[in-house]
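Quick note —
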Amino acid sequence: MPRPDLMPMTGGYRRTPVMQIGADIYCDSQCILRELQRRFPEPTLFPDGDEGLAWATAMWTDRSFFQNTVNLVFGSLADKVPQEFIADREKLRGAKFDVAAMTSAIPQMRDQVRAHLQWIETQLGDGRPWISGDKTGLGDVHAYMNVWYVRQNMPDADGIFAEFGNTRAWETRMRAIGHGHRSEMTTAAALDIAAAATPQTVERSDPHDPNGRKPCDRVEVMPDDYGKVKVAGEIVALATGSRSCRTITARSKSLARSWHCRRNTSPFVGTIPAPAKSSCTFRAPASLCFRLKPPARWRLRLRPVCETCRAPCR
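Predicted structure written out below.
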């Protein structure tokens, strides 16, 4: 789906991947994985237990391992990186996308990526076929992402992996799993499904929320590492359960679709906007206020809200 068409679906959130199930939109890999595990518990992502540790590995693979891999790949591509892509990344990151600096850092990034690969090699060193044991699990999904990225983009990938025999064999097993069966869907069809469906999220509060948040509170959500584009919405559900990841679910009243994102386990953080210094200062929280009008196009509806009392401005 082209990014301009994806924005109405996600309320303005820019980063991918995104999963749509009816009118429920799930942003970020970790949130998507949690929902898939909830809907399809078998085969489980945790065949050997260690669920908490499996989720925690995302902080390694999504942060330091991923950043080192990205810097190595783009530093190696150097002047082959399109200027249009650089401009888009700079807009997303709010900072310079310095390919020259990445190129200069290639020796350090090679050292760092090698260290990450050594961790995988060590984990597989006792002869186990998968990260967590005898069956594939979430740890394999997390770790494979960066291995795949290097393999897809580095001409000398064979040299990078040469010393890691266990990792190469594991990579081959992961690749053999494949991607299942897929079928294409048009942008219009996806948007029509979202407009026609009803969100399945049930309103839920969290009596132990450390910041006192509750359903119906307006919040702004944005990544805490890069792509810090704020998305405004209204809390529908707060849940902790047995996992360390909290989920904020916000709903567009005009479209009645929900989008889900994670917080506390990067990259999302939720903040309640501070009251304006002067009373009755209004702003238009446009990020989630969308409605569908023929011919299947999204239009923006602004509904000003008082920054002090949160009452709608009539």
